[in-house]
Amino acid sequence: MDIQKPVRAYRWELLPKLATEIEYGRRAGARRDLAELLAIFVRQSGPDLTLRKLRCAQTASACLRGARCGGAPSAALLQEHLAFLRRLSGLRSWAGVCRAMRGYVDGLIARVKPAGRNRMERVVASIREDLRAGLADPRTLAQYAAELELSEGHLSRCFAEIAGRPFREEVRRLRSEAARADLLTTRRKVGEIARRVGLRSASQFVADFKRQTGVTPGQFRRMAQRKT
Known about the structure:
Arc Repressor Mutant, subunit A; 12 helices; 2 domains; mainly alpha; 0% strand
């Protein structure tokens, strides 16, 4: 009888974490997260090199967004990204793919200039870090605007342009990211996780989580447990 080896649950928080490491120019952290992602691709994709490369291409796109948020020049980023994808498609060994991914991430970090961001880029980066640290009681866009002496409309437009998504969507994404990590690594109940990510209503949390992931928190946890 063919008994398949259990597959470890995918660590959903790793990819956004990698993008954040790139955004802030943290090479060691980015290398560490990338290595873990590549190892996951091997475990979950088996010997299928094409599938592994597709997952690497998805990862590269997230890395690109991280570098853009980190102040890297858009035109150069796009050209280099397209060149990387063309190179990736032609590689014929996993070792070569891994070298290419490490080189691509290193190249992005070299272009990130946190200190060279303009004022609004620094503002948006600060808001995103503040949201991530304070999900249990996040401030509203209006509160940030008042504190910064900016119009809420102007801050909203700048946030969406720089972060790549509207403020409310970013809050939902961060909540979902934190919730997935809790569901994978703790036995906390759904209601407790909802409170930890700033939602008093468990039903609202379930609805938001399903909108982000396609499954309910309970389904997500059960799927992860079946794979471990």
